[in-house]
Design goal:
By secondary structure, the protein is of the alpha+beta class. It has a three-stranded antiparallel sheet with strand order 1-2-3, with helices on one face. The termini are far apart.
Amino acid sequence: MTLVRIEPWHENDLGLLRQLNSPDTRRHTGGPETDEQVLARHDRYVHFAEGGQGCMFTAVPPNAVCRKAASRCWVRRISSTRPGT
């Protein structure tokens, strides 16, 4: 069994984000972003946890030189009151 580490997104993950910015990967979101958009998204990912919005993660295979995947987990606030009550 191969174990994979899940680590919070950090500054060094910009290369992974650029790899994920391919026409095939981004076909359902309007296509690849400009470099400026990628840099802005990377900055948001790095700072997600600080704002309480959630966290962006990377999957790191054992002995990996580079990261292989990305995943996001976000906070969902549920109201304790129901509409109309």
